[in-house]
# Entry
Amino acid sequence: MANANTARFKSVKTRNGLYRRCEHESVVENSNRAQLCFQFADLALQGVDLFDAINSLDEDWRMLVADPANQIQHDEAFDQKVTELYRSWLETSQKVLHTYTRLRNDYVERGFDQDRIRALESAVREVEGLLSSDSVFFTDLWTLRDEAIDQHHNGSAEVVG
# Structure
């Protein structure tokens, strides 16, 4: 792994560690709800920003390796470290979204930005797909394909167009 990538990886890993340490669950019961919603809005923004940083690190690394002019070899260890960043981020983000379900009414009622939450939810779905095995990911598609073929054969498929 090149020195620039090592430094960038360490920076993202440090941010990920700080994100994991957030005390989102324990403060729900003991905090002023308005203040908690304010803090939660920032936490959601941190989660989305961190996802973007991990994703950018991953994409940039893959572009470096894919370009033959760079003469950089694929590094499985680096790929595994990035995957672990995604896993760690996902675990924390799922907890953050679980906490949000307990705050949703206060959060919406007070007019906090729902776009941040939607962006975090979207990023969580993307990483869940990224980390799932191909057999799990494509099982639903295979099932849908098979059902569509069966419907076509038995004449119950709706013609579109």
